[in-house]
Amino acid sequence: MEDAAQSRVRDLEQLVSELRHDLRGAVSPAVLIADRLRQNNDPAVQRSGKTIGVVVDRVLAILEATCQAVPPRGAGQPGPVIGAGSRQR
Prior knowledge:
Layout: H1 2-38, H2 43-69
Helix pairs in contact: 1-2
């Protein structure tokens, strides 16, 4: 039974890792677009770029916060155990 639980935890850790990676990739174009909009001469367009930037920063902060619950696996480091308490990276 313990092996099944450990396998489930590893599967969930892998899922979180993949989601985190995919979401970072998905917001990358928004970062580039926000930067370009902020360089525009039109103040309304600049504000739109700032708004997009704020939202993207919030998404990235949420993704970073998931690293506290499920730290990314590093080379040679064992995977985290969900529910084992907070761990510093």
